[in-house]
Amino acid sequence: MTDRSRFLFVILIAFGAALAGVFVGRSYIVAPPPVESELHQLLHEQLDLDPTQETRIEAIEARFAIQKQALELELRADNARLAQAIQTEHGYGPQVSAAIDRSHKAMGELQKVTLEHIFAMRGVLRPEQATRFDDAVVKALTVEAK
Question: InterPro entries annotated for this entry (predicted)?
Fold first, then answer.
């Protein structure tokens, strides 16, 4: 076997190992679903909402989607401003500090509208549904990351 053949063989083995690693990672190591997905699934699949509740919750979700999208766009713009400040100052200077403060404000606003959204949906639920919903919210907020 020539040096070139050995080199190609090693490359092939490494590529195969990388593919196997990706397959195993995707098959067996699954990230937990986001809190929103868990609550959405609970609401629409496990709480037996009546048609009026479904309609009201869909309206709440539609309003939230618009607010969330606007705040996510603001966060992306804040990240661009932060990148520009870092590029300009090459360190932790006043522009970087101001950009961080601005992005923290947008993050805080996103957290507030998310909680308002959660409480608005809770307000549509019957008492027994609200209890299950509360349990899911608390669990989602207190589960440890793996």
Answer: Metal_resist
